[in-house]
Design goal:
The protein is an alpha/beta fold. The protein is about 35% helix and about 20% strand. The chain contains 6 helices and 7 strands. β6 and β7 form a beta hairpin. The longest helix is centred in the middle third of the chain and has 20 residues. The protein starts with a strand and ends with a helix. The model has no long low-confidence stretch (mean pLDDT about 75).
């Protein structure tokens, strides 16, 4: 008989365990596949959800449940598999499942909301935060920069480059009059809830 093992990790809630089990039901019962459920130290209501699930199944003999990891003397390895379900707009997991000493960062996100470039930007910021914490363990939250050095350069330097080269021998009023001719109906000034176009401002100045 084929075997399908379902591992219930400590970080899973009963709601997600239920979704996982229900997604297996039709195919496994149809093909008479044995389901082995191991509660891997879950601390919430996962056990109640699992028992309720088993109670509602017609072929309960195909399901084995072990409340503890070593209860069934079953050796297994875990790996993350995306089931196609994303409850939130974006989920970010930083993990080292197999204690390799290497951190992995996984992103589950809705493509209807986030673009690939958005996720790349988020990833760069997370790496920037991790780098700061690793290099200075006693760092305070208020000292951590969320934006990367490259983003800070843009915000503080590039976006503030408002210099404009012009011929100092030509009076400023001449530049203004040229702008009036070029875009007379564009907004020239805004004050509170009032706006004035270049044409209106010019007429006011000449009155």
């Amino acid at each position: 008989m084929a075997r399908v093992s379902v591992i219930v990790p400590v970080y899973n809630t009963g709601k997600y365990v239920e979704k996982c089990l229900n997604s297996l039901t039709n195919q496994t019962i149809k093909d008479e596949l044995e389901i082995i459920i191991i509660n891997d130290g879950s601390t919430d209501n996962s056990e109640e959800v699992i028992k309720e699930y088993i109670k509602n199944q017609k072929r309960q003999e195909l399901i084995k449940y072990y409340a503890k990891q070593n209860e069934g003397n079953i050796e297994y390895e875990t790996e993350w598999t995306f089931n196609g379900y994303c409850a939130d707009n974006i989920d970010i997991q930083i993990y080292d499942l197999n204690d390799t000493g290497n951190l992995n960062i996984a992103y589950d996100y809705k493509t209807s909301i986030y673009k690939v470039e958005d996720i790349k930007n988020i990833h760069r910021r997370i790496l920037n935060i991790i780098k700061q914490v690793v290099s200075k363990e006693e760092i305070k939250l208020s000292e951590i920069d969320i934006v990367t050095p490259e983003e800070k350069e843009k915000l503080l330097v590039e976006f503030n480059k408002t210099e404009l080269k012009y011929d100092e021998n030509i009076p400023f009023i001449k530049y203004f009059e040229k702008q009036v001719e070029k875009t007379p109906d564009d907004i020239a000034i805004v004050f509170e809830d009032k706006e004035m176009t270049y044409r209106e401002l010019n007429e006011r100045a000449n009155s």
